[in-house]
Specification:
This protein is mainly α and 254 residues long. The chain has one domain (3-253). It is 71% helix and 0% strand. The longest helix has 27 residues, at 171-197.
């Protein structure tokens, strides 16, 4: 992997990780179009840029990371466990679905779900309007909703946001809960992958890794900030339409 490829993948990771459009799906597609083989070095690089994205969230929500928010973080960890347990048990089985065709269909299905949910969603009527107001029941619902993200193309952010909205949380609070939930999820995934691929850093182009790290951080930071501003004026319908169009294009070029 050269620096140009590292920049492209870093941009994709930073931009898609926290949006409801599936970072994994975009990474699979981008890697195939760029001719990047899913080697051990690439896996090591993905650990680096995922860690970079985590830092972006932690910096933006640093006011939430303290002992005063112990109740909120207890709910976040409760939401984390379903994916942690089921993901660990099914980690080998879900690899069979890591294909462009699966990504395409899940993009389309996810897009339809977003449009349908938004059609019935009344943000002003939701009881939980701030992330701290998410209840234990809602946190558990979000946690089980996140399990669907094991299927590539579904989107971890998308599945958690939809689960939050369906359980009575408004758009902004659902999205911010999804951002914070990404911290333990991505730390666990990155930590597990690091243990598996730490030896591959020795033979990697560390310059490309460093460039990708910085690019992913900057893009993720900017994306999160702009996304929250976007949600103050618009719904998720645009993301639903994008998912459907992107999925159809993928099926046409397969």
């Amino acid at each position: 992997m050269d620096i140009f490829q590292a920049i492209i993948i870093g941009i994709i990771e930073g931009f898609t990780e926290f949006l409801p459009i599936s970072s994994t799906g975009h990474m699979i597609v981008a890697s195939q179009f760029l001719g990047i083989e899913q080697s051990a070095v690439i896996k090591a690089y993905e650990v680096i840029i995922q860690f970079s994205a985590i830092l972006a969230v932690m910096l933006l929500y640093r006011d939430k990371i303290n002992l005063k928010e112990i109740t909120l973080w207890s709910k976040i960890m409760t939401a984390f466990f379903p994916l942690a347990i089921i993901g660990f048990l099914l980690k080998d089985w879900v690899k069979e679905f890591f294909t462009v065709e699966t990504v395409a269909w899940m993009f389309i299905i996810g897009g339809i779900v977003f449009i349908v949910v938004e059609y019935f969603h009344e943000d002003a009527e939701k009881k939980s309007k701030e992330v701290e107001e998410v209840t234990w029941t809602q946190a558990i619902s979000i946690g089980f909703g996140q399990v669907f993200s094991l299927i590539p193309g579904t989107s971890r952010a998308g599945s958690t946001i939809i689960a939050g909205m369906l359980s009575g949380v408004n758009r902004k609070a659902s999205t911010e809960f999804s951002f914070l939930l990404a911290i333990p999820v991505m730390m666990a995934v990155s930590g597990y992958d690091l243990l598996k691929h730490y030896q591959d850093f020795a033979g990697a182009d560390l310059t490309a890794f460093l460039v990708g790290f910085v690019v992913a951080f900057v893009v993720a930071y900017a994306t999160i900030k702009l996304f929250i501003v976007f949600l103050q004026r618009f719904t998720f319908v645009a993301f639903g339409i994008y998912r459907i169009i992107f999925g159809i294009i993928l099926l046409m070029v397969l």
